[in-house]
Amino acid sequence: MKRYITLAISFFIFLIVLGAIDYFVSDDSFLQDYVRGTFTETLGIIVTLIFVQLIFSRHEDGENKRHEAQAITRAAKVLNIYIADYKKYAYQVVTPLDKREGQIKEEIPEDFLFSDMQDLFVRSLYIFDDEKPVVLKCLEAQEKIRKTIENSLFNIDFKNFPEISNLLVQYIDFVGGFNIYDAIFQDSKTSMGDQTTKEFIAQRLIKVHQGEVMYLQSNIINTYIALYHLLNYHRKFFNDYEDEMKYLQDFV
């Protein structure tokens, strides 16, 4: 590209010189005819160079966009694994056992209630999962999503797909403000008198909750209010991300 620009500039300077010569020589001289012929030929060369450069530049831009789309798609294959994990765990977090109808879906229900999170400390019902509460499995999947997105942002330019980049950056920023894993882990292990902390939270705070979901000053429930907002955010993020990836397929 730089080579074509240099040549075009050189020819343009040459045209200026020819124009100056044409101005000073007599109108009926052989030199003037030669200068004007050379001027016309040089102008044709410049136009051709510009046209070739335009075609080359468009091809190069198209190839760069295609390679970038392929890199994003490869990263998405890994990310989609963790998104699927998150969805299946999130479904269990926000769907009480008596409402699951004997099945586990890989989607986050719309408009779930805060009280629907009452069985969040029950272990995952997937056969090969460990004994951890499903809420911790969900947050572990979230961390894998975060790390995968972070690596993608470091390793892929996203120059041609700024909308995807902005969406991923917003995810990192939002999720980074909710460091609740350790608090929930501790709640799953400790006791409050003759009752476990997780039983108290699930039955006395979450299950009976009614009305607006809002933070309370210095209250143990705030960790789970944050979880509620995180789950809702993920549902919207996944929808937006899937829409962007559909658009991306036109360039792969």
Write structural notes for this entry.
This protein has helices at residues 2-24, 30-94, 134-155, 162-175, 181-187, 197-206, 222-248, and strands at residues 191-192, 195-196. The protein has 252 residues and is mainly alpha-helical. It has one domain. A two-stranded antiparallel sheet has the order 1-2. Strand 1 and strand 2 form a beta hairpin. The longest helix has 65 residues, at 30-94. The chain is elongated and about 100 Å long. The two termini are 25 Å apart.
Structural class: mainly alpha
Q: Tell me the quaternary state.
A: single chain
Order of helices and strands: HHHHHEEHH
Task: Tell me the fraction of residues in β-strands, as a range.
Answer: under 5%
pLDDT below 50 for ≥5 consecutive residues: which ranges?
none
Give the spatial strand order of the biggest sheet.
1-2
| Global geometry | elongated
Tally of DSSP β-strands: 2
User: Which percent bin holds the helix content?
Assistant: 55-70%
Radius of gyration: 32 Å
What is the count of distinct domains? 1
Protein name: Phage abortive infection protein
Keywords: Membrane, Transmembrane, Transmembrane helix
Organism: Paenibacillus rhizophilus
Transmembrane segments: 7-25, 37-56
Topology:
Blueprint: H1 2-24, H2 30-94, H3 134-155, H4 162-175, H5 181-187, E1 191-192, E2 195-196, H6 197-206, H7 222-248
Antiparallel strand pairs: 1-2
Q: What keywords describe this structure?
A:
single chain; 252 residues; mainly alpha; two-stranded antiparallel sheet; 2 strands
